[in-house]
Amino acid sequence: MSDAIQPFPAATAASPLTMKRLYGKLVWRLMPFLMLAFIINAIDRLNLSFAKLRMAEDIALSDAAYGIGAGIFYLGYILFEVPSNLYMQRVGARATLTRIMILWGLITVATAFVTTPSQLIVARFLLGVAEAGFFPGLILYLTYWFPAAMRGRITASFFMAAMVAGMICGPLSGAIMSHLHGWMGLRDWQVLFVLTGLPAVVLGIIGRYWLTDRPEQATWLDDDEKQQIQQVLAQETVATQAHQGLRGALRDPLLYVAGLVCFCIYSAANTVSYWLPTLVRGFGMEDLKQIGLVTALPFLGGLCAMYLLGRSSDRHMERRWHLGLTMLVAASCFFLLDLVQGQLVASVLVTTLGAAAALSAMPLFWTVPPALLSRSGAAGGIAIISSIGNLAGVLSQSAVGAVKTATGSLYLALDLIALLLVIGSLLLLIGIPARRLAAARPAEGT
Question: Residues 6 or more apart from 308 whose CB is under 8 A from it?
Answer without folding.
Answer: none
